[in-house]
């Protein structure tokens, strides 16, 4: 067996250009598999992480303009009120915390720096619902809400863009020429499953945003956390029936709001990324398959070219299996060298893609092992036919071959 | 003394589509250990077929072939490969050495298909190379050697496994007359000094004369089987 290995290695070394081109086919195939799988898995892990960061027990209630409501005019989306939010918190047993929310986009100014971002008016429980730790300072309190305090909490993106490396706490920023005191900074949370930068935000008491910035009395959404992740279905029912009752909707009327569960939302995104992984992976597998055909092609040429050598080996006593193994080892060595190089190439490329493309990539050792295993299987599978053909040669004819 | 080779009424019939070609027609032949037999005949006489059967590269259609008392005419391909490996050595007209493979590696080729190469084998290869005047060419490649030297390497490869029978198929066909003499003297030496049984296939009378027994084939049958009249054995032994 050692001798057969030596023979195979020597044959590979003898035709360096041909061997490297064959190996290149496998490198591209395996590399593509690694890149595609790692990007796919990265996306999946990213979504999972996001799901975790959103909280598996978070529900969002948003107003919708039903056909019926739309018929009443263009103001069909002002159906949610602060009272609705308070009622949900008080009366729905499956709900633990509720935060009313209002949202607008505006310019925030600090000194000569300015940054346009989303300003969210939220309640004191927002931090608990979103499970979002503070980097510095304190969060909005019920007291802030009650007195419409001109205070704000900044997301990391806003901190970086307005303050650079300065500590933002207790400094003053201006929005619509009104000064607001920065009371805290949120820790970095990264992208949402839909790709939005969650750190690009300014949080304020919802009363402040309603009165001082937007001049409205309704809320644009409410955020609720359920007592457990499993309780979310019950919570959705409770919220729906409570709000229908509060909005005085008749049984034949459609809801003028909708309750969205983050879990269902995220799992849709996850399903999409899973489908993408499978799609990309199968395209990559096709290129590995093509690489395998390259091996088969070269091995067929090689066995024909070396017919006489095979004849000599048979004449001095090489058995069928000796010849079979000699060529099988040759194709497998080619494919496994291609496999190892392809894995390195793939890891390198996926790092590059995630670095320059801002794309998350994750490489698990099982996927590397699977890729290596696959490349070996390609060598055995595509090398078997040529090797068998070689081993079945008639020694008399092989010796006479010119 | 036991026969090394015993052919008993051997037939070889090739079927090419509808046509049947009888290459050997009832050949019976016995060879004792240490014999040096030349097989002669015109082309189409069946000497190549005979060579292939003797060399266990092919099996007879009918009849029996005993090699060192073992019947080998009904063995499988793998069993034949084993017989070739253990009991036979080949020398071909076109040398049939592996190119881009060193002289030593060519010589040890039969050994890698039978066992691990031991210290003894290495010593034996050295000895054979010295006897055949190949000392110092260990790391050379066949294309760096002359025709005569290449044929000596082939002979060394043929005897490295201590075969019961050495088959030489037109060993001088690609060589000039001086080198031919040289190679034939090597074969005679091996036969004379080491007692190796040799079957030589040739169509040249001069070359056949080195053997001590000449079998002439015609149309697949043994035409004559006679001791060589004028032995060309060298009177002076090679050093």
Produce a short descriptive summary:
Chain A has 402 residues and is α+β, with helices and mostly antiparallel strands. Chain A is built from 14 helices and ten strands. In chain A, strands 2-3-8-5-7-6 form a six-stranded mixed barrel.
Secondary structure elements and pairings:
The complex is a heterodimer of chains A (402) and B (239).
Chain A: H1 2-14, H2 16-54, E1 58-63, H3 67-72, H4 82-91, E2 95-110, E3 113-122, H5 126-130, E4 134-137, H6 142-146, E5 151-154, H7 156-163, E6 172-175, E7 178-186, E8 201-205, H8 206-214, E9 221-226, H9 232-246, E10 257-261, H10 262-305, H11 307-315, H12 320-356, H13 365-391, H14 395-400
Parallel strand pairs in A: 3-8, 5-7
Antiparallel strand pairs in A: 1-9, 1-10, 2-3, 2-6, 2-9, 4-7, 5-8, 6-7
Chain B: E1 3-16, E2 19-32, E3 36-40, H1 47-54, E4 62-67, E5 70-71, H2 77-87, E6 88-91, H3 103-107, H4 109-112, H5 119-131, H6 147-159, E7 165-169, H7 177-193, E8 197-201, H8 205-208, E9 213-218, E10 221-227
Parallel strand pairs in B: 3-8, 3-9, 6-7, 7-8
Antiparallel strand pairs in B: 1-2, 1-4, 4-5, 9-10
Helix pairs in contact in B: 6-7
What does this structure look like?
The complex is a heterodimer of chains A (402) and B (239). With 402 residues, chain A is α+β, with helices and mostly antiparallel strands. Chain A has helices spanning 2-14, 16-54, 67-72, 82-91, 126-130, 142-146, 156-163, 206-214, 232-246, 262-305, 307-315, 320-356, 365-391, 395-400; strands spanning 58-63, 95-110, 113-122, 134-137, 151-154, 172-175, 178-186, 201-205, 221-226, 257-261. Chain A is built from 14 helices and 10 strands. Chain A has a 6-stranded mixed β-barrel with strand order 2-3-8-5-7-6. In chain A, helix 12 (320-356) runs antiparallel to helix 13 (365-391). By secondary structure, chain B is of the alpha/beta class. Chain B contains 8 helices and 10 strands. In chain B, strands 6-7-8-3-9-10 form a 6-stranded mixed β-sheet, with helices on both faces. In chain B, strands 2-1-4-5 form a 4-stranded antiparallel β-sheet, covered by helices on one side. The longest helix of chain B is centred in the C-terminal third of the chain and has 17 residues, at 177-193. Chain B starts with a strand and ends in a 12-residue tail after the last strand. The chains are: A alpha+beta (402), B alpha/beta (239). At the A-B interface, helix 1, helix 11, helix 12 and helix 14 of A face helix 2 and helix 4 of B.
């Amino acid at each position: 067996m050692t001798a057969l290995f030596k023979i195979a290695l020597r044959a590979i070394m003898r035709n360096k250009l041909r061997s490297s081109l064959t190996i290149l086919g496998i490198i591209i195939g395996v590399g593509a598999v690694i890149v595609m799988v790692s990007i796919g898995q990265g996306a999946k892990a990213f979504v999972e992480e996001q799901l975790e960061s959103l909280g598996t027990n978070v529900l969002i209630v948003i107003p919708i303009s039903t056909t019926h409501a739309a018929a009443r005019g263009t103001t069909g989306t002002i159906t949610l009120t602060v009272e609705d939010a308070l009622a949900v918190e008080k009366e729905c047993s499956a709900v633990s915390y509720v935060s009313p929310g209002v949202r607008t986009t505006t310019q925030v100014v600090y000194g000569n720096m300015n940054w346009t971002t989303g300003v969210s008016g939220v309640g004191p429980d927002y931090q608990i619902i979103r499970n979002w730790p503070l980097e510095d300072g304190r969060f909005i309190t019920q007291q802030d809400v009650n007195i419409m305090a001109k205070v704000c909490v900044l997301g990391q993106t806003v901190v970086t863009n307005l303050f650079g490396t300065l500590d933002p706490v207790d400094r003053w920023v201006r929005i619509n020429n009104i000064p607001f005191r920065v009371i805290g900074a949120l820790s970095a949370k990264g992208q949402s499953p839909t790709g939005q930068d969650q750190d690009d935000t300014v949080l304020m008491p919802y009363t402040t945003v309603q009165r001082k910035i937007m001049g409205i009395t309704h809320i644009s959404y409410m955020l609720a956390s359920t007592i457990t992740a499993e309780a979310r279905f019950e919570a959705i029912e409770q919220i729906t029936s409570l709000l229908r009752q509060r909005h005085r909707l008749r049984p034949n009327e459609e809801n003028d709001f909708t309750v969205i569960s983050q879990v269902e939302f995220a799992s849709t995104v996850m399903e999409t990324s899973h489908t993408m992984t499978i799609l990309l992976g199968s395209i990559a597998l096709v290129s590995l398959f093509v690489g395998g055909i390259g091996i088969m092609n070269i091995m067929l040429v090689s066995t024909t070219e070396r017919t006489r050598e095979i004849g000599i080996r048979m004449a001095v006593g090489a058995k069928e299996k000796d010849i079979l193994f000699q060529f099988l080892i040759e194709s497998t060595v080619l494919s496994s060298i291609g496999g190892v190089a392809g894995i390195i190439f793939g890891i390198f490329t996926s790092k590059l893609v995630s670095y320059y493309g801002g794309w998350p990539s994750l490489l698990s050792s099982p996927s590397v092992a699977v890729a290596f295993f696959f490349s070996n299987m390609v060598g055995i599978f595509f090398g078997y036919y040529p090797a068998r053909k070689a081993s079945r040669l008639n020694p008399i004819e092989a010796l006479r071959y010119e | 003394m036991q026969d090394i080779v015993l052919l008993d009424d051997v037939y070889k019939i090739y079927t090419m589509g509808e046509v049947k070609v009888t290459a050997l027609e009832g050949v019976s032949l016995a060879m004792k250990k240490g014999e040096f037999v030349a097989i002669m005949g015109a082309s189409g006489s069946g000497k190549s077929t005979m060579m292939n059967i003797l060399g266990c590269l092919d099996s007879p259609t009918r009849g029996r072939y005993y090699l060192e008392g073992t019947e080998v005419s009904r063995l499988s391909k793998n069993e034949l490969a084993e017989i070739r490996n253990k009991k036979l050595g080949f020398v071909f007209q076109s040398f049939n050495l592996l190119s881009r493979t060193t002289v030593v590696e060519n010589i040890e080729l039969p050994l890698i298909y039978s066992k691990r190469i031991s210290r003894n084998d290495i010593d034996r290869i050295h000895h054979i190379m010295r006897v055949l005047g190949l000392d110092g060419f260990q790391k050379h490649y066949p294309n760096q050697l002359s025709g005569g030297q290449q044929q000596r390497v082939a002979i060394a490869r043929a005897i490295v496994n201590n075969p019961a029978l050495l088959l030489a198929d037109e060993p001088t066909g690609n060589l000039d007359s001086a080198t031919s003499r040289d190679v034939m003297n090597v074969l005679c030496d091996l036969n004379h000094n080491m007692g190796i049984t040799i079957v030589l296939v040739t169509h040249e009378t001069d070359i056949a004369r080195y053997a001590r027994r000449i079998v002439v084939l015609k149309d697949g049958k043994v035409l004559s089987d006679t001791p060589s009249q004028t032995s060309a054995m060298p009177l002076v032994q090679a050093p």
